[in-house]
Amino acid sequence: MIASTALRLTGADALSLLHRIGTNAVADLAPGRARATLFCDFRGRLLHRALVGVAADRAVWLLRDEAPGADLAAFLDRHVFRDDVRIEDRSGQLPVRWAPGDGSLAADSLAERDGVPVALRVGDETLMASEGPAAGELARIRAARPAHGHEIAEAFTPYEVGLSHEVHLDKGCFTGQEALMRLITYKSVKRRLVRVGGVGAVPPVPADLATDGAPAGVLTSAAADGGRWLGLAVVRNEQNDSPRALAIAGGGAIEAIDPVAETRPLGR
Predict the structure, then answer these.
(1) Quick check: is 151 in a domain?
(2) Residues 120 and 162 grouped into a single domain
(3) Residues pairing with 198 in the sheet
């Protein structure tokens, strides 16, 4: 099973820390509520994503299912100066898995037992903090859900991988805000997320994509789908505006291109 993240933050400044360095507004989260946020570098490139929930005891939990907790804990710790924040990594004791299609929990809420999360839902996304079968890579790709090490990577901004709605441009300064604001102001987002597919063996990722020999994007995820494969790719906008033959550089045709619905940043 892929390592997952379960961090518990305590202290009077836990939410304000996340609000200050993350892309989304979380300072107003009340106990039992949840929201997703991203953490970027100064260029607006993606470093981390997590669902944030507040428990009844006001401890703040950060959960994610497809990346280990240690690197996120270290990232947060580097931003703690005089803040009243303590970071506890519970990842080893609290496995987290994605439960696609589980609508048993109200949107944007956290369910807990004895102060420990049981489930956390943001929008249509539910993470279960318990043992159980994990959804496969094919299900994730079909849902166009970005993952760490694939679409959530320093090569991309939130706007390029379908995560614009988790950026709140008007909430106050955060790392990467200026760069992300410029991309929107000058309409200079050049790439977007699409589903792609082909026949034959699953191609390795990441893989460069080309159109007529010219760079067109990158294949970021791929999984078997019967005798075919299905994947996610970040491609240049002109490929969507005027579709042309797209291929994996070095060989391998792509036979289907399905743009993922675009979202808009908050506050603009």
Answers:
(1) no
(2) no
(3) 229
